[in-house]
Amino acid sequence: MNGPLEKLSRRDGVSRRDLVVGATLVGGALLVGCSPADLMSAGSKVEPGAFGPFIRFDPDGAVTVLSKHIEFGQGNHAGLAAIVAEELDADWSRVKVVHAPANAKLYGNSTAGIQLTGGSSAISNSWEQLRKAGAGARAMFVQAAATRWNVPVDQITVKDGVVGHASGKSAGFGALIADAAKVTPPESPTLKDPKTFTLIGTDRVRRKDSLVKSTGAARYTQDVQLPNMLVAVVAHAPRFGATVKSFNADEARKVAGVVDIFQIPTGVAVVADTTYAARMGREALKVEWDEAKAETRSSATIAQQWRDIAAGKGPSDLKWEAFDSKGDAAAASAGKGARCSRPPTTSPTWPMRPWSR
Amino acid sequence: MTSTLDINGKAVTVKAAPETPLLWVLRDELGLTGTKFGCGMAQCGACTVHVNGDPVRSCVTPIAALSGAKIATIESLGGTHPLQQAWVKHDVPQCGYCQSGQIMSAAALLAQTKAPSDEDIDNAMSGNICRCGTYQRIRAAIKDAAGLTAAPVVAAPQASNDVDDDIAAASGSTGRGAGQ
């Protein structure tokens, strides 16, 4: 988890304008341009609901799970909601998932401390937290029903979002919200024995976002449109590490709709009324790049250098650090032909665009 | 200066200059954001719409070329098109960003070829790339929507222990297709 944090802290001192521009441009990389301190204070006024920060109930009994992780194809929204629904004994068909608002205190990644999705951490860092959230809310509904029906708590059952009693009395979550919201949440609710899970680990857990992602209705960062919103694009360096030496924006400023052009740490930003105008403005821009510190090797050259290093022909001052010095890897893999190489890639495992709230 | 376009069955007057690609008119001026911007150079298919029933890359199609043409976007399918139902049934989308374009290409295929073969599907869908690699489910969903039984998924050939070839594959062609 150090990687993203390090990247973030290197961005300290970036101006607010840079942040706004960066956020507009990069869309999903909304984190770019924010310091950890900014992230920690963002949205600090968000209050958790009566049932905690992760669960809301609609009067009709529908359950909304607030996901602290973004969904960009991993399927984590279904997985996270299933954790809540399992302990809550909710009706899975009536469980919805939305992205949580900005509030690192409530929705921070338990590992990284900031609101961060990555490193395959979504389920693992939410597992206990969401189980407790679901079990806690369930206990509140159980207590509310027991009080209303004047029966012992341990005689109350919950199944598919319906709270019941052997006497035949039953009520959906919706009918009990007001009473349940007044119950003091248990500090350490009893969690299910995983052997009794009816949802987690079954085929019933299906994606919740397939329809909106099949109709064009799913809103991605680039789809966010606000009144009087401007659009910015950046002329990025053609090589990693290159910086702007100088630029001439005379022609770019003549493009209808272009509002402003200025240098930012990663290149030259063109701000315009519309995306098309911004793109045309960027096309008309003349930028001279300083490639003194740029990466100029080709992918093929880098790959060959990696192979050379692996074959013991690398630079003599190269320092190797064993990942784990226990055991004898050579002996363990002897005769098994376990050899593998991976190409260097400039393409991280990111989606084309992340989903937005 | 304004232009009149026929979009999703309605005559729409737009202000954009005639050379503006349809994509930006749909998204920025008309708020039809279901059509996505991927590459801007007709290489990825995310911006696919129908023009007179044919799949067209809206990012490189100036509106000047569309006078009198019938334009249809993902929004025109209404959410209950057989392909959309099949997409949900098979949980096709992952990040979902390319899927509007995938579905529009598939819809044009099914409108013209009721019972597409694997080859028909590969040919029709080869211009739509998916960063998540949902191709197997796309093909299965197209067959499902066409009322055909999808061929069983054949296990990929065992990878060799030595995958040095990955380097050539990664730096060369993208080596993809609906069947790969």
Shape field of chain A: flat
Determine the number of helices of chain B (DSSP H or I, runs of at least 4 residues): 6
Mean pLDDT of chain B: 86
Spatial strand arrangement across the major sheet of chain A: 1-2-3
Radius of gyration of chain B: 18 Å
Considering DSSP H and I runs of 4 or more, what fraction of the residues of chain A is helical?
A: 25-40%
What is the overall shape of chain B? globular
Low-pLDDT sequence parts of chain A: 1-35
Structure, described:
The complex is a heterodimer of chains A (357) and B (180). Chain A has 357 residues and is α+β, with helices and mostly antiparallel strands. Chain A contains eleven helices and eleven strands. Chain A has a three-stranded mixed sheet with strand order 1-2-3. In chain A, strands 4-5-6 form a three-stranded antiparallel sheet. A three-stranded antiparallel sheet of chain A has the order 7-10-9. Chain A starts with a helix and ends in a 25-residue tail after the last helix. The N terminus of chain A is likely disordered. The C terminus of chain B is likely disordered.
Keywords:
heterodimer, A: 357 residues, alpha+beta, three-stranded mixed sheet, disordered N terminus, B: 180 residues, five-stranded mixed sheet, 6 helices, 5 strands
Compact description:
By secondary structure, chain A is of the alpha+beta class.
Write the layout of secondary structure elements.
The complex is a heterodimer of chains A (357) and B (180).
Chain A: H1 2-10, H2 16-26, H3 36-41, E1 55-57, E2 63-67, H4 76-88, E3 95-99, H5 104-107, H6 122-149, E4 156-159, E5 162-165, E6 170-172, H7 173-182, E7 231-236, E8 243-248, H8 250-253, E9 258-264, E10 267-272, H9 275-284, E11 286-290, H10 299-310, H11 329-332
Parallel strand pairs in A: 2-3
Antiparallel strand pairs in A: 1-2, 4-5, 5-6, 7-10, 8-11, 9-10
Helix pairs in contact in A: 4-6, 6-7
Chain B: E1 3-7, E2 10-14, H1 22-29, E3 48-51, E4 54-57, E5 70-72, H2 82-89, H3 99-112, H4 118-125, H5 135-145, H6 165-171
Helix pairs in contact in B: 2-5, 3-4
